[in-house]
Amino acid sequence: MRFHEHLGKYGRKYTQLLAAVLYNCHLTGFVTGRISKSVSKGICAPGLNCYSCPGAVLSCPLGSLQEALAMSAYRFPFYMLGTILLFGILLGRMICGFLCPFGLFQELLHAIPFPKVRKNRLTRALSYMKYVILALFVIAIPIIKAAPGFCKYFCPAGTIEAGIPLMILNEEIRDMAGFLFTWKVYLLVLCILLCTVCYRAFCRFFCPLGAIYSLFNPVAFFGLTVDKGKCTGCNACVEMCRMDVTCVGDRECIQCGACKKVCPKGAIRYRRFFDH
Question: Residue 246 belongs to a domain with what CATH number?
Answer without folding.
Answer: 3.30.70.20
